[in-house]
Amino acid sequence: MIATLLMIAGILFLALQLEEKLKVPSPLGLIALSFVAHYGFQQVPVLTVDADHFAALVVFLLPILLISDSLEIKLADLREHGLSLLYLAVVAVVLSVLMALSISGWLFADYALSNAAVVVLFAMVLATDPVSVVSIFSKFELPHRLKILAEGESLLNDATALIVFVFVGLFALGGGEITTTYLVEISVEVIFGSVVVGMAVGFTGLFAMKSTENRIAEMMVLIITGYGAFELSEHFYVLLNMMGAHSHLHLSGILACIFSTITVHHVMTQAIDEENIRIDREEKELHREVQNRSATSGLIGIVLGRIKATIDERDRHLRSKEDVQLLAMVANTILFVAMAEMIDINLLWKYKIEILVMFLATTLIRAVMMGLFAWITNKTDKMANVNFRWWGVLTFAGIKGGLSIVMLTMIPASFEYFEMFKAVVIGVIMLSTFTYAGALLIIIGTNKERFLTEKLQEH
Description:
- The radius of gyration is 24 Å and the shape is globular.
- The protein is mainly alpha-helical.
- The chain contains 19 helices and no strands.
């Protein structure tokens, strides 16, 4: 176990060094170093032994990644860009699945895939990885609106993809009948229920946070809130059954975790803003007292004490956020190390054509969806206009992540195309991580002056 800990810490250190010295995005460095460590030190104890154990690890670490990414989103941004995020995180996913259904016969002519199987396959590769996007964006000066669109979409569309996967794909794969009434009812129940549960847990967490001035305790409240909302939603049917409802309703833990964290973060942000205003006011008061020669040292000391207390409180909130981000980085490192362990190179090579076809198809579908989004935004004043540069960034911000493998383990083992699906999903994750990240670096790097100008114009 100590050797494993040393390996994880060393990989994270080297990845951060590559990011700092050579501007290599940390997800790329983590993946590359994880493979080097796995194949170079075979004697190091493994973190996972199969896909089921990896899925359990992802579910365990996923909430901390969601909490960290949710702390980057403000409620005001959701309100301002609500329509845009609704399209990117919901409408685009649904349209992508419909487009996939229309071309599936051509893409996989050698396989007799049912419509349910197509929905399952494409839902898995539509879920994006917010960690990679946030990591790359943090190294550049980009317009705030562009960052909100890309980061918000990568965070929220995971919930949509999972809902489509479970309640449409798997439901139909198991013989369930998909009707318009069913789709409307299940969408309203899952989305509305998850948001309500998340916000309720978030407000509960706020009461606990107000009871402490300890930074570590404050961070624990953030973690308990996010994980609590996730667990409560995933097992919501247990609560209903305890109340005698005899229901099997399964909510979205991802969505609940996101909204619980946003709820807490909104109040924390308000507190920080109020503290900044209070500091400015008390500094002005101190300046007046200093200019007033009749001011006593005791009165000046009281004002200085209030300023110090306010600064300490503000810094405590900010450091709690940094602590959560550190935990998320460690969690992400563990995930990449585990992914390197479970990848079968021979299996990927066996299905290399299917992987390449799927990767190109999903890239084309995403480009079309972002193009449609750009066309819509330029026709209305209620959404942020998207130019060609922004279209390129949004298209290649669709890097895939560990959630796709979690979905993979939910497919029945008896499914005849399970091996092919496993190879395709893992292959697309690997290709998107390197090619999309590289494309983002090229697009942003060659247009950094224009992006900086757009950012300055926002202010």
